[in-house]
Give the backbone structure.
Amino acid sequence: MQRFEYKVVPAPKRGEKARGVKTTEERFAFALTQMMNDLGRDGWDYVRADTLPCDERVGLTGTKTTYQNMLVFRRVIDEAAREQPEPVAFATLRAAPVAEAAPLSLGSAHVPLGAAPSLGPAKHDVAAE
């Protein structure tokens, strides 16, 4: 089974000037081509373009929704470089031996092992304030 990792980048908003590229559409297509070729050299395959809502702050308390054009790319994860250990079944885990613990001492009260101290209501320390 192949595994993929994904990369989402904002689509270019402006075209790029280049020799022989004159119109706005040609400049935009050139900018998009450059971006896709740069990512392709790093192993990323183009998947799709999405327009997604994005909430932005306006002023101190306001928000407005804008829409962002995003390009989605993916590439196969190199299994040899990213080997993840198989999950270990609980039955194969062994508990480590527990060292004998000393009896617990809570101030003036001595609590033997296996017993819990009785708790009373919380006390408010007025002198500390």
Notes: The chain has a mean pLDDT of 78. The first helix runs from residue 24 to 41. The first strand starts at residue 4 and ends at 10.
